[in-house]
């Protein structure tokens, strides 16, 4: 089977399975659970899990429940992050706390995580390794989110601090996907560790690219939370670089965007191009993806589908 | 050792251990985590876990990590419930979202649950039963909370519906304590199931008593969320009974309390006494505790310390 068909099949399978995962709870919960879970996500994480399992010659049945739990884990973080940032739109739909109310947002996040964990424990009670990797990831994401919040109230953040934050917030979760994909295919420890490193790098590249697309993509799907990011003084790779290169100019542009969003953002974009920040970010993203692919090259089995997936992510427009 | 000393020792041990459970995360998280965890809780759940393990002649070392995870699980629910009900005070301290902000409240709840789960998985990777009981309880609590919220917008709730809700919200968690206390002492399945049933009943009695104390206790520690309960139209055992006996009068008193809280609540109390709701609730609480103790009597080992604990809870004033 070729790569595109495989990815497509995975996506359809994941979407189909997610539709049936929570149907018997209180009516109010079932409704909002499925509103979130069936929304138009990219399914990057569960696809990555299944794909890693595939290149490791595993049985998809052993990886699929974990892939679903990972997607739910991700969705839980989205619902709660949207509250923290007061974002109004997610995946083209109103966010939960916006469409319902704050309490429903908090509770729905908790529920999605509960369903995710129950699904995981049910399917991996004899594979405590999978459960352990998963719960470690949960802690990492909370800590990454906390650093992200801490950074809001600081002016100067170094690239090193930023990298630590996105590794916790995004990298470890993608590293969890590849590690669980590998572990459920019963590869040796060395290969599982290497695939985890690959996943973390992929996550790092993915996050910086997210920062980048949010400012430069034409897609309506992106730019979704650019306004809240600006208002909250979020630290992105581009803003940190710009703060190093032209602190005064970029701060003025950001202040302007708080008053006149479109005008301010146009100025921010112009500065990022003129001062070389855009170019440097593109280079950094490419560098990280190259580093990730190098890890794949060093493994002694066919990882070409993961290579293709790296490229699939690198070339995304949303 | 006598009962009071044992309970005291457990409480001190739990408080001591909780102080060291999360120290190495991002500064902002460590601070707020320990603010919540070290607050003046009654530690009902972890003490119940250890006590059950004790009467089952288990080794405390096997139950202690679970007891700590259960207390953290409970604290996670409190932090998020306080957001949902917008309560300002908890255990004599400002609630997290009130002292910090909403985002910190959401994230701190998530973190406490993450730490709880990591602590559980680390200590019970070879006892998947404990992990399974725990995650099932997590789902039950979310569903109970959802029903509680659903009831806010309904006028007529039956006692049966109410019982189902509090079993999910409170009962199963106490049932989890006794079941895990028993399982970590390696008792047979029958005894573990019976002790679970005892815990669920204890939780049911505890919750109705909570409803009761919130209205009738003189303690400053209670009545903490009475105002928000009234505003949110929360269904308690007493309100459901009153709605059956004198719907018009009680609704008028509640409406009055929304305008003049003290005057309205005095009228509510007066009605609950005059119409026999207070008395009937006291009877119901006693009936449930008797039923719980009957289960203990049927077990063929010495459960007197659990009897004492039932009485300890029944006689609490906060």
Question: Could you give the topology of this structure?
Answer:
The structure is a homodimer of 318-residue chains.
Chain A: H1 3-18, H2 27-37, H3 44-55, H4 60-85, E1 89-90, E2 93-94, H5 96-99, H6 102-123, H7 128-152, H8 159-183, H9 189-216, H10 226-231, H11 237-245, H12 247-259, H13 261-274, H14 277-297, H15 304-314
Antiparallel strand pairs in A: 1-2
Compact summary:
Two copies of one chain form a homodimer. In chain A, 76% of the residues lie in helices and 1% in strands. By secondary structure, chain A is mainly α.
Provide a descriptive summary of the structure in words.
The structure is a homodimer of 318-residue chains. Chain A has 318 residues and is an all-alpha fold. The first copy, chain A, has one domain (3-314): Orthogonal Bundle (Farnesyl Diphosphate Synthase). The first copy, chain A, contains 15 helices and two strands. Chain A has a two-stranded antiparallel sheet with strand order 1-2. In chain A, a hairpin with a 2-residue loop joins strand 1 (89-90) and strand 2 (93-94). The longest helix of chain A is centred in the middle third of the chain and has 28 residues, at 189-216. The first copy, chain A, starts with a helix and ends with a helix. The model of chain A has no long low-confidence stretch (mean pLDDT 93). Chains A and B meet through helix 2, helix 4, helix 6 and helix 7 of A and helix 2, helix 4, helix 6 and helix 7 of B.
């Amino acid at each position: 089977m070729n790569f595109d068909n495989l990815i497509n099949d995975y996506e359809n399978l994941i979407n189909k399975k997610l539709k049936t995962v929570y149907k018997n709870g209180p009516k109010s919960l079932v409704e909002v659970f499925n509103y979130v879970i069936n929304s138009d996500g990219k399914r990057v994480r569960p696809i990555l899990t299944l794909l890693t399992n595939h290149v490791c010659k595993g049985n998809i049945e052993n990886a699929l429940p974990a892939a679903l739990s990972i997607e739910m884990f991700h969705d839980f973080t989205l619902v709660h992050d949207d509250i923290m940032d007061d974002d109004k739109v997610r995946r083209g739909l109103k966010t939960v706390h916006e469409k319902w109310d704050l309490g429903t947002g908090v509770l729905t996040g908790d529920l999605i995580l509960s369903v995710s964990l129950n699904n995981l424990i049910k399917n991996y009670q004899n594979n405590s390794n999978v459960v352990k990797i998963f719960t470690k990831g949960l802690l990492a994401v909370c800590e990454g989110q906390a650093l992200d919040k801490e950074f809001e109230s600081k002016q100067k953040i170094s690239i090193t601090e930023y990298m630590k934050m996105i590794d916790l917030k995004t990298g470890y979760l993608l590293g969890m996907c590849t590690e669980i994909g590998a572990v459920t295919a019963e590869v040796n420890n060395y290969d599982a560790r290497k695939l985890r490193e690959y996943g973390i790098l992929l996550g790092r590249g993915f996050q910086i690219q997210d920062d980048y697309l949010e400012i430069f993509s034409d897609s309506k799907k992106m730019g979704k939370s650019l306004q809240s990011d600006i208002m909250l003084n979020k630290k992105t790779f581009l803003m940190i670089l710009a703060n190093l290169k032209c602190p005064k100019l970029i701060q003025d542009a950001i202040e302007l965007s708080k008053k006149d969003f479109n005008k301010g953002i146009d100025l921010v974009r112009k500065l990022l191009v003129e001062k070389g920040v855009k170019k440097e970010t593109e280079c950094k993203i490419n560098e990280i993806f190259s580093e990730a692919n190098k890890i794949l090259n060093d493994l002694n089995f066919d990882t070409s589908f993961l290579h293709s997936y790296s490229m699939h992510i690198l070339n995304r427009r949303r």
